[in-house]
Amino acid sequence: MLTELPPLNSLRAFEAAARLQSMTLASKELHVTHGAVSKQIRVLEDYLGFALFVRLHKKVSLTDEAKRYLPHVQAALQTLSSATSDLRRQPSKPQTLDINVLPSLTINWLIPRMEQFKSRHPHLYVDLSIGDFAVDFSQGRYDIAIRSCTAIPKGANYIKLMDEDLCLVCAPSLAPKLQNIEDINHVTLLKHTTRPELWEYWAEKVGLTLTQAQTFGVEHFYMLSQAAASGMGAALIPRFFIEEQLANGSLVIPFDAPFTSPYRYYLLTPKSPSLPLKAQAFIDWLLEVFAPYRH
User: Fold this and answer.
1) Do residues 242 and 165 make contact, with C-beta atoms less than 8 angstroms apart?
2) Nearest-CA neighbor of 225 among 252, 202, 256?
3) Which of 2, 55, 160, 242 lies 20 to 30 Å (CA to CA) from residue 100?
4) pTM for this prediction
């Protein structure tokens, strides 16, 4: 056991002040105040039980004990610095990060951005799969999952990523038939079959009674966006998911009727007081790219 180790900050302050023979110059080198350097040296002196410096008017002089101590401190700090530098220069050990994400979030949004994450963390091999099932982290299959739901998830640590902001969209060819909210009752309503209540939620929000019985249902937002772009009807789709289609004009917003659905997107991790560094690296990156969508 290493039982005779003084505080590292005190050793750094002592080495700098001894080498420069000045508390002021040491404080500038270490980017701390003059008082902080003095305090750290007093801590070291108390720990050792003897004085290290003779304080003069504008500089300091080492005591005999400090002169004997200084070369050993410098050698130890240099060894630690060199070892740390060598370790940081070595490529990180490859690791696998298993992530399971909603199909709608994966296809149009996450995959086009993953190269940015890979370039930052080339030692991480990402195993990305899609799913919309309840995640059981006790099985040890996934490090991270992303889900959407209407209530806070149970059995996992969670971070809320964003609300689900929907916009009403259609193909440009259908837009002339949708001049106002009431016109919705004259076109086919494209429904997300796992969220069939979205149109009713939207209609209640905008004050419309739905009378259109003609609907067409699909299972995922990706399929919904394709059906809308082909002119099959109007759809309610998260804005983040169709940014590219809105930009290239394959989908348009015929009139402004935004709607925040009851669903929220959550990042889920196993119940644990701490996370592996590989998982934390992905979370930090994801929160950064999600920042424009969070409110």
Assistant:
1) no
2) 252
3) 242
4) 0.65
